[in-house]
Design goal:
It contains 4 helices and 5 strands, in the order E-H-E-H-E-H-E-H-E. It has 161 residues and is of the alpha/beta class. It has one domain: 3-Layer(aba) Sandwich (Hypothetical Protein Ychn, Chain: A). Strands 4-3-2-1-5 form a 5-stranded parallel beta sheet, sandwiched between helices. Helix 3 links the parallel strand 3 and strand 4. The radius of gyration is 19 Å and the shape is globular. The N and C termini lie far apart (43 Å).
């Protein structure tokens, strides 16, 4: 039988050194911007939520932050989510995407969602998008990247299928 080494952890114990930070805590300089583009399926993994948390952190560092949702990522901006009624959280975390997007927008972040993927692929109308989300033409996805490049902005792009 294996022998257990050490003592059982208790709620609130730190099991790693959370204070040891290796890199400088960079803050935006005036006029700096960031573009985060996501092509990911909501609730099929952690990528979407982690990227929204990252976008929020970048925004809090002072960057003018733009989150571009396309492909299945456009579904993250759905205002029609909930069960048994819209806005009801059927289980903890069921509205996590909506809550994080709202926090991001409330703090000055810009959210765009591709109308092609929303309508043609998923049957989601522009009116079904969260208030504050700007519907964009599918051609705007590339132009967002080119705008970011031209402005020497931070660009993060993630794909999941």
């Amino acid at each position: 039988m294996a022998q257990i080494v050490g003592e059982r952890v208790n709620k609130g114990d730190a099991i790693v050194d959370y204070d040891d930070k290796v890199f400088e805590d960079i803050q935006a300089e005036p006029g700096e911007s960031a573009y985060i583009l996501m092509h990911t399926v909501p609730f099929e993994g952690s990528v979407g939520l982690v990227n929204m948390l990252t976008a929020t952190r970048i925004n809090r560092k002072g960057f003018d932050t733009h989150l571009v949702l396309y492909g299945p990522g456009s579904l993250m901006a759905s205002a029609a989510r909930g069960y048994p009624k819209v806005g009801d959280e059927a289980f903890p975390g069921a509205l996590g995407y909506n809550k994080q997007l709202q926090t991001f927008m409330d703090e000055g972040g810009h959210v765009y969602a591709c109308r092609f993927s929303a309508a043609a692929l998923y049957g989601m109308r522009e009116i079904d998008m969260m208030e504050g989300v700007k519907p964009i033409n599918p051609l705007d996805v590339l132009d967002a990247v080119l705008t970011a490049r031209r402005n020497n902005a931070l660009i993060m792009q993630t794909w999941t299928v």
